Structure to design on (530 residues):
C-alpha cells in the first residue's frame, strides 16, 4: 500500500489549451495511447467520434456534434498518475473552459506550426498567466509546412509575453521534416512515418557529435542548417530555468506532429519531469499543503441534467489536499453542513466510474442536491478551510433576453437565475433605465442556444434573444468610483450584476482605453471577483 504522500506526489494535473483545430484532441489521444488507456491500432478515435464520446449528455451536443461540457481523463504512465482536464475544443467555448484552468496545476499549449498564436490560445493563456502556473508549448503539425521556427518563438514571446526555451528543435518541416534535435540530450531524433500514428515509429537517436551519422540521416544541407541554428539558438534563447518554468515566466517549447505521433512521447517525458506535483492552494492568505493537510476540495464546475431521466446535477471538484474515501463525512463550508459525499464519480470520456478513493490533484464529480455553487469549499468536519473564490471571466457576447409569454415572468426569472448560478451564463440588469430587462453575457455564442434550449425544456419558458453589439466588459475595481460620474465614450453602456456591482460594456477595446483616460483614478478589470 502506498502512502497518501506517495499517491499525491505522483499526480500531475493539467489542462490542454489551444485554438480549435491546432491538434488538442489528437495530442490527448496520443497521450492516452502511451498511458495504455486506449490501444494502438484501430482504436484511435476520429475527431467526430471522440467529440461524441466525451459527452453525450445534452441533446444539443448530440445535435451539433460538439462537446459543451469538459471532462477529465486519468491514466498512468511511467509511475505517474496523470489527470488531463479536457476543455471544450470548439470555437464556441464557454466560461467553463476558463474555470477548468482554475483546477489545473499546469497547462499544455498546443500551437499549429503553420498558424502560430491564435485568438483562443491568447485568451486561455491570459487566464493561465493570471494564475502563474507553468505553461508548456507543443508546436504541432511539423509534418506540414510550418512558419519559420525563430519567428514562431518570437511571436509567442511578443504576443503572450512569456520567454521561450526550446527543449528540442525541428529539423525541417512538411515533406522535408526529418525529426528534432534534443538540446538536453544533444541528440538528433529522426522522424519516421507512423501511418497517422497507428503503428510504432522507427525513430533512431543519433548523438550530434556523430556528424557523419547525422548527415546521413538528415542530408548534408539540413545538417548544415541545423548546426547553424543550434549555434544561433545557444547564443540567443533564454537559458533553461526550472524555477522560471514553475512560476509561469518561461515556457519550454517542443516540436512534433501529434497526428503521426512524432515527438509526443519525448514531450510527455520532459513535461512530467518539469511540471509540478499538485500545487498548494490559498485559503485566507495561507497555503494549504496537498500532503500535510487532510481532505479538502473546491467546486469548479457544475453540470446540470447530465442524465435527463434523473435531472441530476453533478458538481465537479478538484481535490486540493489529502485523501477522499468512500462514504466519508465532509463539511460543505459555505452552508456549514456536514454531509456524506454520495457516490463520487470519475467522469472519463463517456463512462462514469464510482470511486472508492481519490487524492489531492484528482477531480471528482459528486451528485449535487442543489447546495453547491462554483467556488465552494469542502473539507473535513473539524477543519477550517475556505478557498478563495473563482473569478468571473469576461463574457464577449451579449443579448437582451425577453420571455415571449409575459405571464411566465416567475418561471423565467427562476430558470435564468438557476442557469446563471451554474455559471454557464452571466446575467446583468440595465442601470438606471427603469427597465426590468435582463442582459445575458456569454463567453461563447453556443451558450445562447443552450440557454434557450434549457429554458424551453426545463422551465417551459420561451424566450427571444436580441443580440447587443458589445464585446468588452469591465468590472470596476477602484473603490471610490461612482458609476453615475463615469464619463465614457458614446458606445459605452453601464450595467449592474445581480449583486448590484457596477460594470461597463464597450463595443471596442479602444473605448476602454479612452474611458480610462477620461476618468482619473478609474481602475477596470477583465476578471470579476466571485
Ligand atoms: P482540436 O482538438 O485542437 O480542435 O484539433 P484536432 O486534434 O481535432 O485536430 C484538428 C485537425 O488537425 C484534424 O484533422 C487532425 O487530424 C489534424 N491534425 C492534428 N495533429 C496533426 C499533425 O500533427 N499533423 C497534421 N498534418 N494534422 C494534424 P481533420 O481533417 O479536421 O480531422 P480528421 O478527419 O483527421 O479527424
Amino acid at each position: 500500500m502506498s502512502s497518501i504522500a506517495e499517491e499525491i506526489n505522483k499526480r500531475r494535473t493539467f489542462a490542454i489549451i489551444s485554438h480549435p483545430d491546432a491538434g488538442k484532441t489528437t495530442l490527448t489521444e496520443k497521450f492516452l495511447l502511451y498511458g495504455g488507456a486506449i490501444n494502438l491500432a484501430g482504436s484511435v478515435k476520429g475527431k467526430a467520434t471522440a467529440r461524441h464520446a466525451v459527452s453525450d449528455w445534452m441533446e444539443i451536443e448530440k445535435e451539433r456534434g460538439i462537446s459543451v461540457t469538459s471532462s477529465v481523463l486519468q491514466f498512468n504512465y511511467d509511475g505517474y498518475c496523470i489527470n488531463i482536464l479536457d476543455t471544450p475544443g470548439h470555437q464556441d467555448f464557454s466560461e467553463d473552459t476558463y474555470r477548468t484552468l482554475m483546477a489545473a496545476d499546469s497547462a499544455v499549449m498546443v500551437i499549429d506550426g503553420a498558424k502560430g498564436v491564435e485568438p483562443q490560445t491568447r485568451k486561455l493563456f491570459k487566464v493561465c498567466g493570471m494564475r502563474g502556473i507553468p505553461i508548456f508549448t507543443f508546436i504541432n503539425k511539423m509534418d506540414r509546412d510550418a512558419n519559420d521556427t525563430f519567428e514562431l518563438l518570437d511571436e509567442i514571446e511578443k504576443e503572450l509575453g512569456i520567454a521561450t526555451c526550446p527543449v528540442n528543435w525541428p529539423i525541417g518541416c512538411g515533406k522535408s521534416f526529418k525529426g528534432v534535435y534534443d538540446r538536453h540530450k544533444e541528440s538528433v531524433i529522426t522522424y519516421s512515418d507512423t501511418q497517422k500514428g497507428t503503428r510504432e515509429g522507427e525513430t533512431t537517436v543519433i548523438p550530434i557529435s556523430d556528424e557523419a551519422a547525422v548527415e546521413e540521416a538528415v542530408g548534408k544541407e539540413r545538417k548544415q542548417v541545423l548546426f547553424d541554428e543550434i549555434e544561433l539558438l545557444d547564443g540567443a534563447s533564454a537559458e533553461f530555468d526550472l524555477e522560471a518554468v514553475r512560476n509561469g515566466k518561461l515556457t519550454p517549447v517542443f516540436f512534433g506532429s501529434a497526428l503521426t505521433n512524432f515527438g509526443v512521447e519525448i514531450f510527455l517525458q520532459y513535461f512530467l519531469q518539469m511540471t509540478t506535483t499538485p500545487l498548494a492552494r490559498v485559503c485566507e492568505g495561507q497555503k494549504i499543503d496537498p500532503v500535510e493537510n487532510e481532505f479538502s476540495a473546491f467546486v469548479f464546475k457544475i453540470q446540470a441534467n447530465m442524465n435527463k431521466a434523473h435531472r441530476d446535477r453533478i458538481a465537479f471538484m478538484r481535490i486540493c489536499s489529502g485523501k477522499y474515501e468512500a462514504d466519508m463525512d465532509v463539511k460543505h463550508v459555505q452552508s456549514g453542513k456536514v454531509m456524506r459525499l454520495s457516490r463520487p464519480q470519475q467522469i472519463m470520456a463517456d463512462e462514469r466510474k464510482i470511486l472508492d478513493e481519490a487524492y489531492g490533484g484528482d477531480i471528482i464529480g459528486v451528485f449535487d442536491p442543489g447546495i453547491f455553487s462554483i467556488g465552494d469549499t469542502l473539507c473535513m468536519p473539524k477543519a477550517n478551510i475556505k478557498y478563495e473564490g473563482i473569478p468571473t471571466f469576461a463574457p464577449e457576447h451579449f443579448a437582451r433576453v425577453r420571455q415571449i409569454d409575459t405571464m411566465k415572468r416567475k418561471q423565467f426569472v427562476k430558470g435564468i437565475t438557476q442557469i446563471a448560478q451554474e455559471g454557464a451564463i452571466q446575467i446583468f440588469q440595465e442601470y438606471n433605465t427603469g427597465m426590468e430587462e435582463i442582459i445575458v453575457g456569454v463567453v461563447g455564442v453556443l451558450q445562447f442556444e443552450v440557454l434557450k434550449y434549457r429554458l424551453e425544456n426545463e422551465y417551459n419558458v420561451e424566450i427571444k434573444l436580441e443580440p447587443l453589439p458589445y464585446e468588452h466588459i469591465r468590472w470596476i475595481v477602484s473603490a471610490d468610483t461612482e458609476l453615475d460620474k463615469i464619463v465614457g465614450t458614446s458606445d459605452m453602456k453601464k450595467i449592474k450584476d445581480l449583486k448590484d456591482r457596477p460594470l461597463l460594456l464597450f463595443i471596442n477595446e479602444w473605448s476602454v482605453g479612452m474611458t480610462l483616460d477620461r476618468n482619473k483614478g478609474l481602475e477596470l478589470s477583465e476578471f470579476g471577483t466571485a
